[in-house]
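Re-run with default settings, no changes from the original entry. Doing this only to confirm the output is reproducible before filing.
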Amino acid sequence: MRGGRWCALFLLSTSCSVPTVSIVEGARDVGISDRLDGSLDVLTGDAAAQDASVFDVAWYDAGTSDGSGVGCVREGAVDPAAHVYAGAYHACAFRPGAGVLCWGLNIAGELGAESASGYVLIPRALSLLQGASVSLGNAATCGTASGVVSCQGSNSNGLFAAGYSDREFHAEPRVVPGLTGATSLAVLGPRPCAIGPSGEVLCWGGIGHPDPTSPTGVVGAGLPPTVVPEFGACRSITAGSLHRCALRCDGRVLCTGSNRSGECGQPPSDEVPSPTVVDGLDQVIDLVVGDGVSCALRADRSMWCWGSNGWSELGVTDRPSSWTPVAVPGLADVSSMAVSLSYTGGGTTVCAVNAGRLRCWGRALGVAEGPQTRVPAPAAVPGLTGAVARVALGRQFGVAISPGGEVYCWGEAGNCGRDPGPQALLLPQAVRVQFPD
């Protein structure tokens, strides 16, 4: 058996240090691998003999009756491929050889020093993001490097943990205390959360906001990072404005928070107070959520969504919502997904990169009110016809990057590096984001 740079999690164990991949004898030797170049593999049989140097994350199903399986997480992996990220009103892009640069609305120091217009139209480098994984929030920017989380911008949800008030903005990076070995990070919602070194979910902050995962149900000023044990061992976590979901090491999804449209995968209710498994989903390898909608990517590259369907966000037109996951029709080779925050006036946009081409549906971005605002099935974005590697969505804009590092944006102009003007100019067609030389 050849070993790669891996960390194996056996059955219910949530920590390990052995740098090899192991397959349980007699198990259904199935591995799901997310390559650093964006492609996905289903490994069978001699999966342990694969070249682990190209893999980011994998998990193995040991065929246990309780579904716990065998998880395997590669430590310290930083995606070297082209990537884009979106907060509510700002965006960042990683282009190979150029590092991370960010642009958009800058109201709380999320993009550093203030600009005269309130917008950063020329993408700028931020020190906390260089060599780090990136997470963007409502008006905040965070980077995770060597397990240490640094953030700048608004503290409205207690992002900076203990010792800060919700009125404080920070245009310079501040280290979030009490977090070590953090990996995946979700900074939207009532409380920020991260995945710890053993797969545990830790949440912190929150200032006077209701939050069912808080011991009291309402978060006080700047709570320190605290484990939410109901999640179990997870590989990633993601959040919208009012709910969050995590991808567990066994390939299952758990959600908690607002559930008015079934976005937590349970019959509609005001909220799901504790992390609960979404039934009907397994072998999940990626997960995204927005406002009122959640989506998962399975190992066969199919995309499944649940929650609100008022604007055809589920890619179908036969139901107002669905708390059970629905396969998005016509998508069989998905490699990247995104769900937006809610649009002014309602509606959410959903996008996927399918066979290298971007397709979006739901609430059309960059389009004024009218019948053309609804896109009932996956469709191309006007002005973007070439190959796409990744997509990300903010509140009223989208951003995509090609395999070669060209970045395109559509929706609200100021969030796309264009002068929004006095009327908040909308861009119905994708335009190329201009980077400094």
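Residues 8-73 form one domain. The chain has no helices and 33 strands.
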